[in-house]
Amino acid sequence: xxxxxxxxxxxxxxxDEVLSGQMDSDWADEINQFESQLELRKQGKxxxxxxxxxxxxxxxxxxxYDNGQRNDGTGVKMLPFPSNGRTKGPDTVWDxxxxxxxxxxxxxxxxxxxxxxxxxSEEYSDGVCHITTRQDVQLHYIHIDDTPSLMxxxxxxxxxxxxxxxxxxxxxxxxxxxGVCRDETFDVTPHAEASMRFxxxxxxxxxxxxxxxxxxSGCRQHACGLVTMHDFGAIAVTREVDGVEQRGFEVxxxxxxxxxPHQARLFESFMTEDEILPTLQAIARVFARLGEKRNxxxxxxxxxxxxxxxxxxxxxxxxxRATLAHDDRWTAYLDGLPAYGEQPLKPGHPLDEAxxxxxxxxxxxxxxxxxxxxxxxxxxxxxxxxxxxGWQLRRLADVARRFVGDTVRTTVEQxxxxxxxxxxxxxxxxxxxxxxxxxxxxxGSIADITACPGTDTCKLGIASSxxxxxxxxxxxxxxMETLDEAVKQxxxxxxxxxxxxxxxxxxxxxxxxxxxxxxxxxVPHFQVVLGGKWVDNAGAYGLAIGAVPxxxxxxxxxxxxxxxxxxxxxxxxxxxxxxxxxxxALRAMLEELTRVPPHEENxxxxxxxxxxxxxxxxxxxxxxxxxxxxxLTEFDLVGAESQxxxxxxxxxxxxxxxxxxxxxxxxxxAAKGLIKTEFIDISDDPDQIVTEFRTRFFDTQIFFxxxxxxxxxxxxxxxxxxxxxxxxxxxxxxxxxxxxLFLEATHxxxxxxxxxxxxxxxxxxxxxxxxxx
Amino acid sequence: MTAGxxxxxxxxxxxxxxIALKIFLDDESVLEPSDVIPVFHRWIQxxxxxxxxxxxxxxxxxxxxxxxxxVAHEGHYVLDRAGGRLGLQYARRQPLDGALPDRLVALGRIxxxxxxxxxxxxxxxxxxRFRGHEIExxxxxxxxxxxxxxxxxxxxxxxxxxxxxxxxxxxxxxxxEADPRARFGVLAHTPGVATLDTIAARLRQRHASDHxxxxxxxxxxxxxxxxxxxxxxxxxxxxxxxxx
Lengths: 773, 244
Description:
The complex is a heterodimer of chains A (773) and B (244). With 773 residues, chain A is of the alpha+beta class. Chain A folds into five domains: 6-107 and 128-155, no CATH class; 180-339, Sulfite Reductase Hemoprotein, domain 1 (2-Layer Sandwich); 358-435, 2-Layer Sandwich (Alpha-Beta Plaits); 454-622, Sulfite Reductase Hemoprotein, domain 1, CATH 3.30.413.10; 623-773, Up-down Bundle (Four Helix Bundle (Hemerythrin (Met), subunit A)). Chain A contains 25 helices and 26 strands. In chain A, a hairpin with a 2-residue loop joins strand 12 (232-241) and strand 13 (244-253). In chain A, helix 21 packs antiparallel against helix 22. The longest helix of chain A is centred in the C-terminal third of the chain and has 26 residues, at 729-754. With 244 residues, chain B is α+β, with helices and mostly antiparallel strands. Chain B has one domain (14-211). Helix content of chain B is 26%, strand content 21%. Chain B contains four helices and eight strands. Chain B has helices at residues 36-46, 100-119, 149-166, 196-210, and strands spanning 19-25, 53-58, 66-72, 75-80, 87-92, 130-139, 173-176, 184-189. The two termini of chain B are 22 Å apart. Classes of the chains: A alpha+beta (773), B alpha+beta (244).
């Protein structure tokens, strides 16, 4: 049985028929099966939860407002989709637009694939292709009925969306300049590709509690592979054995950003090439067997590694590896390695340095990387917010055909690179890119900002990461010529919430969206994250130093970068600068920017970037202020924020016990503030706070986040249960992250409570009344 | 289609549903794309235009392509800069009833109503005026309408009927998109000058004559009087004399 999408109902032919014979038969069967499941769901014969995971594993995601309601700025309004009660997942209306994620392994694209992506963006989406922070492509506003045809057209050019989302192995990423990099150890492309092929649909990767991300890097020192933020990361290394150079990988496990980031740990300092795939398989089996399945918030492999300890995890993986039956695919690709390599379209030829317009020279300074192969260069096509139109992508495919052939890759900085450009062709290439409005200079600069979709399309977004990124790119782009060289090199990354899709932990200036309740209104804010490191494969993760109203973030950037220029010592990096100056001093610089003017004085603060609507969270209505009881809560929240910041300072001073105690204290104080809305006489006794909090806010689910449920409350309960066991660096750091998230959840809960009418109660505090809608 | 061999697609425009129509701004300097973001949000609040209006997507950071979208279930309203020219597009996504000529008229009416609302929106900085003598029609479906000459042949009767209604019989010059990989699209231009109100009135008349039962329903945008026609007379000419 197969579905009847729009074209099938209406037309004399289908893409299935037209593309017959052009798709890999297995892929074609899978898509047919998906289409059948889609039809079964439409008929109500497939459980919505099952269909949701099915479509997620085909890359078909939900999108903001797919629950059928939206705050239009005057209140929450229903969106009466004609779905007749049909859903494509829990709380997800069938006809609501969704997002299609398209896996692009190691970012590698051919010109024909670019053509197809361009076509699909025009016909099924909104005419825009979006490059993601994991080298994928995303199309938005897709109707679920269109997805089978879309998938067939991709399959016909060798692209599958299988396991682009869901609890599976996500896109395998790799350095976009692998193979042409001047200082890589060796080209990791074939290993990334082999991993992708081996793991795709493998039976051992179908039973995870959560996603699993794999990355390959050709070196330790650059950022390209971002190995430390992956569940499995491999850095190319060599060693000498009996006078012969042997290739292998330094393998890391258990990394990840997300709400509580973990840096990956060294699993093995030298793993031979032939062991990579079987080890991946063994890790997958251990993860599937022992990883958390019920509590999604603890289900990434980083939690399993932390729980078991690295040594035990390693032992289990090795034990598992020893039991695996041999699979020829583990090593089959290795035979082809000596001959592996891309064929340049044209013979190399150096650039005449005098050639080219001033615009070309400005572009070349930031967007051109000289390959290790003489006479060739990589040209970066810098995309604003990772976006390009279908028309641009098709024209870019033509440009690729003329200059480089099929040697195009997407990057985790949401750009596209053309590899193997003959240097002498660079001026002509630049002219062609100019003609299609893709010759923006400043790739990899402070004005080339990475941002997740945020509130634009993501269901979890709190603040407008793209709106802020667009504003910063505009301002910084205008100042580019006058910016100090050291500032130009900085990187800004922005997430719409704490989930880190914008990778805000691993850059110089990171921001993630939060909200604050001010005078009866909700105000969009961004936490300012400092101390992250992009290089060294994301070598350090930053921590939040305080929340600033969204409209003040450009001023935050200006003040911090100005101070960097003024106080920088020699060739000091920004990371070293922030470490030396210290977060206390940097936070003090921002103190006045944290204040929000009253609504009547400046209503602009109560709107997000690029959105004229009065700001709200979760698209729930914003009600009246609950009065002085809320002020007491706010007082405790301010105190809690101070404690969590002090905890960071203690962590930096290697005072782990103090850092741990402060982070724990912050959570207790925030919980206490919330309890005061119902029970004003709450004491300072941790046991009483936790008990009251559990009874009043956890058991009643009042504290629950719409998407995360009670996971933030669990942070407090776990720490409370731990008692006085000593903390090390990792546990203290993790607790600080968790405390920050607990505080954000408390802010959100407080805002929800404040939006409800209150009636006086005998305890002297307010009692909530059910909101009548 | 990128595979070798004959293209197996057969134009089937009778079943074509994904159609986009675009009108062009007379003076692009009067409008910054971001100016329409609050307008589109207001349209959602007041349900000012046809369809289930969902959200506004801001792509004004892009130098070409869609600038600002009013996302709707049935079809998107797009302030569009594709081809380097700013205009308003309505891109249908869900099926409409009726034969292709009727569907074109219906789409035209939806688009022109939105265009008229922009022209009369007092919150916009300049006097926004769209050209009534130039319109782009795109078949947003490469399966049913591959960009080939046969598609134009098949599409032409319905298109000509639609265009001559807009121009009161005056001839149009048609320019078809040259890239065979692009969507089938036609830029239609007629000599003389016509306002949006003029062509909207003609479409209304056509609709009224085609659907006499709908006569009592007003198709003018709610709460506004229709502006008087201000165009020079359009001389009648045989339809369908355009060139590719």
